[in-house]
């Protein structure tokens, strides 16, 4: 991995979006309501699959710390990294209120992989890949970070007409679940593309899980056979 790759895989425009909203990260009725709504689903699924209690976990693109705290509450030793200074400040402030011990650091996944390869039992990278210029480089970094036999969890948005209608037109313009401009359709990632990058990084695809939203009940749920819009991918590193 080149030093240039380590330095440059950051989109300052994407960082600025979340910097501007950082103070509202822990408000469950704010622009981050969707993250609050899906956080128990994804944390419970990760814990069910990986049993995080007593394990070292790296949360890549941790933002204000929603998933980091949820995994810490389940007994994990968590390192959360992000390139946004303001979200990390919010994460550290909320950590004082929660009393949890989480190691928050401002750095890229590539930099952490150079510093601490094969150091984590579990690596999570949720709702982050569609916000970086080179998602394959982040996947390679996650593969370097996890120990042999460990697990890596990704989540992102599929790229197809349905995902455009649901995730951008529906979520950002009609239902106003997210601020306009949160996502760029061209950065959405098909599961086939993700699987290719994962295998190139030396990981195995263990499971693909969808996540759907019901606008009538206003609830999210995990859906194993519907990965048309939001999906999660569980990967393993061979022993």
UniProtKB/TrEMBL annotation:
GO terms for biological process: methylation. It is an enzyme of class 2 (transferase). It catalyses: a 3-demethylubiquinol + S-adenosyl-L-methionine = a ubiquinol + S-adenosyl-L-homocysteine + H(+); a 3-(all-trans-polyprenyl)benzene-1,2-diol + S-adenosyl-L-methionine = a 2-methoxy-6-(all-trans-polyprenyl)phenol + S-adenosyl-L-homocysteine + H(+). This is Ubiquinone biosynthesis O-methyltransferase. Belongs to the methyltransferase superfamily. UbiG/COQ3 family. The keyword Transferase applies. It comes from Marinospirillum alkaliphilum DSM 21637. GO terms for molecular function: 2-polyprenyl-6-hydroxyphenol methylase activity; 3-demethylubiquinol 3-O-methyltransferase activity; polyprenyldihydroxybenzoate methyltransferase activity.
């Amino acid at each position: 991995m080149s030093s240039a790759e380590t330095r440059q895989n950051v989109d300052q425009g994407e960082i600025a979006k979340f910097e501007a909203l950082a103070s509202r990260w822990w408000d469950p009725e704010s622009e981050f309501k969707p993250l609050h709504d899906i956080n128990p689903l994804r944390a419970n699924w990760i814990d069910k699959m990986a049993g995080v209690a007593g394990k070292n976990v790296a949360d890549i693109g941790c933002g204000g710390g929603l998933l980091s705290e949820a995994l810490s509450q389940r007994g994990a030793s968590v390192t959360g990294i992000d390139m946004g200074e303001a979200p990390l400040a919010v994460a550290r402030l909320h950590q004082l209120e929660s009393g949890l011990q989480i190691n928050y650091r401002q750095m890229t996944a590539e930099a952490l992989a150079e510093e601490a390869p094969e150091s984590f039992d579990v690596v999570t990278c949720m709702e982050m890949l569609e916000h970086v210029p080179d998602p394959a480089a982040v996947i390679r970094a996650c593969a370097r970070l996890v120990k042999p036999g460990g697990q890596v969890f990704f989540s992102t948005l599929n790229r197809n007409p349905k995902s455009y209608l649901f995730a951008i037109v529906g979520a950002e313009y009609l239902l106003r679940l997210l601020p306009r401009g949160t996502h760029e359709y061209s950065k959405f990632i098909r599961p086939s593309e993700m699987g290719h990058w994962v295998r190139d990084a030396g990981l195995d695809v263990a499971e693909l899980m969808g996540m759907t939203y019901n606008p009538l009940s206003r609830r999210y749920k995990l859906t194993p056979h519907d990965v048309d819009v939001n999906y999660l991918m569980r990967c393993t590193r061979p022993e």
